[in-house]
Write a structure and sequence with these properties.
It is a single chain. Helix content is 37%, strand content 15%. By secondary structure, the chain is of the alpha/beta class. It has a single domain, classed as Rossmann fold (3-Layer(aba) Sandwich), CATH 3.40.50. A six-stranded parallel β-sheet has the order 3-2-1-4-5-6, with helices on both faces. It is globular and about 45 Å long. The N and C termini lie close together (11 Å). Bound molecules: magnesium ion and zinc ion. Magnesium ion binds next to loops.
């Protein structure tokens, strides 16, 4: 059981979890296209009393593929579409660096999730981290979060490669995660 003081929150990766991913990066609002059912999943979580935070590596910034104005415009679109589905994304954290920057926020480093844990009152043991890449799960596992893999985006490849953190649960997509997670929480 969550302690009474711990806020209910779900932490999501962005590309390949909420929106379709691309090896060529998502560089503009037009390229930001929701995965079917993902916005409805966010709405279900919102309506069940969960805050939704996004933690996303965006090395395209550091590589000069797109700028902050483009990232802000993508996120404005994401917020607007989530709201029109009846949901809310409470916070978006992103790492703009490349691997060569050796920052503490680029997943699998846990810095972004640590910032979220500090901003919100979080009980990691009861907080799910949802991602499609191993590094999303490694960042979560490093801080003791519950790790969930979705098979959208890079998820199938991630599952096939193996080595998932112990206790990782696997779901077809964000919609399946939300239904399964909320059903378990209701028990
Ligand atoms: Mg991803
Ligand atoms: Zn970073």
């Amino acid at each position: 059981m969550p302690t009474s003081s711990a806020r209910k929150i779900v932490i999501l990766d962005r590309d390949g979890v909420i929106n379709l991913d691309s090896d060529a990066y998502i560089k503009s609002p037009d390229e930001w296209v929701a995965i079917p059912g993902s916005l409805e999943a966010i709405a279900r979580l919102t309506q069940a009393g969960y805050r939704v935070a996004v933690a996303s590596n965006q090395s395209g910034i550091g590589r000069g593929l797109f700028d902050m104005a483009a990232l802000n415009a993508m996120h404005a679109k994401m917020h607007r579409l989530a709201a029109s589905a009846g949901g809310r994304i409470d916070a978006v954290f992103f790492c703009p660096h490349t691997a060569e920057d050796h920052c503490d926020c680029r997943k699998p480093q846990p810095g972004m999730l640590r910032m979220i844990a500090e901003r919100f009152e979080i009980d990691p043991e009861n907080t799910p981290v949802v991602g499609d890449s191993l590094r999303d799960l490694q960042a979560g596992a490093a801080l003791g979060f519950r790790t969930h893999l979705v098979l959208t985006g890079k998820g199938e490849k991630t599952l096939a490669a193996g080595g998932l953190p112990e206790g990782t649960l696997v779901h077809d997509d964000l919609r399946a995660f939300a239904l399964d997670f909320l059903a378990r929480e209701a028990d």
